[in-house]
Amino acid sequence: MTTRSPHDSVTDPALETPGALPRIDTTVAHPARRYNYWLGGKDHFAADRESGDLIAATFPGVREAAQQNRAFVRRAVTFLAGTADIRQFIDLGVGIPLPPNTHETVQEIDPTGRVVYVDNDPIVLTHARALLTSHPKGKTAYLDADLRDPASILHHPDLRGTLDLRQPVGLLLAAVLHFLSDDEATHAVHELLRALAPGSYVVLSHGTTDFWPADRAVLVPGLQRSTETPYRPRTGRQIAGFVAGLQLVDADPAVPEPAASTTTLIEDDGSQLVSVFRWRPDGTDAAQPRDDEVACYGVVARTIATG
Ligand SMILES: C[S@@+](CC[C@H](N)C(=O)[O-])C[C@H]1O[C@@H](n2cnc3c(N)ncnc32)[C@H](O)[C@@H]1O
Fold first, then answer.
1. DSSP annotation string for 21-75
2. Is the pLDDT of residue 5 over 80?
């Protein structure tokens, strides 16, 4: 019988034998399955749908928010793999696979692209096969690991066997930090950034109530309790704090690289942050969302040598 530790990885699809994957409770909503429900996927159970509908009653834009977040990640990855010449990525809190997954976007630009996926949800692990469909010239790996323990990710042999951390990396933290406490999120980002070569990029999206009136924002803690999800929306100032001092990739597509990320440093007051759908829109989205509807910031930043 196959046994798994909390930090197991999947590099061989043959390891994904039914019955080898414990810990899946279909009676309790999981963020990954609920997100899949909002995105119109098919990997969710009644508890996920109930919880998803409960949240949608207070936050009617949540489905649009999920779609806009995905679109932001796709545009950011395309920018990094194309314009910024990044060839290796860590996708943290990847969620249940839904094309185009990061390696598909990257390898369409360069088949040699390499991606390490990470999630701590057992349901995502059961779907990891879909993330291991690398082009033969590239490579992907999946780690069943927890962002709250960044060292276990950074030192994992499968990450080290897939990526070269002496070279720049694209670090994706999309819609995941808002599941961590302030201390956990700060620690994770700090440790991850410390491990990356200068010239690496961070793609960060994060829920916020900045665009909501106070009488609506105040409902979030009650919603958390009733859905059993430790969702922590943060202010633009708090979110900017995670990447303050890094170089800002301008959200305006008219600002070309390298100017986009060599002139402006990210301030810690949040004033440079934009909603995910305002980050380098590519004209493919016919929707005209509102900031309060999407309630999610997106930022892309480049790391610099710290001496
Ligand atoms: C809302 S989904 C976002 C999926 C994807 N990153 C995206 O933006 O489309 C959040 C994912 O983060 C994962 N997650 C939450 N907390 C985590 C943790 N501490 N470590 C690793 N993954 C985590 C969840 O299991 C879920 O799959």
1. -----TTS--HHHHHHHHTT-S---HHHHHHHHHHHHH-TTHHHHHHHHHHHHHH
2. no
Q: What is the DSSP string of 252-263?
A: -TTS-TTHHHHS
How much is the CA Rg of the chain, to the nearest whole Å? 18
Cβ of 175 closer than 6 Å to ligand 1, yes or no, is: yes
Cα(71) to centroid(ligand 1), Å = 16
Taking each helix axis from N to C terminus, what angle separates 46-58 and 220-227, rounded to the nearest 10 degrees?
170
pTM of the model: 0.92
What whole-number distance in Å separates Cα of residue 34 and Cα of residue 39? 9
Pocket lining: 276 vs ligand 1, CB cutoff 6 Å: no
Q: Is the pLDDT of residue 167 over 70?
A: yes
Is the C-beta atom of 176 inside 6 A of ligand 1?
yes
For residue 175, give both structure tokens.
Answer: 């819609």
Residue 255's Cβ-side half-sphere holds a number of Cα atoms within 13 Å equal to 14
- Cα of 256 to ligand 1 centre, how many Å? 31
| Structural domains of the chain, ranges and CATH numbers in brackets | 21-302 (3.40.50.150)
Pocket test for ligand 1, best of 73, 92, 119 (most atoms within 8 A of CB): 119
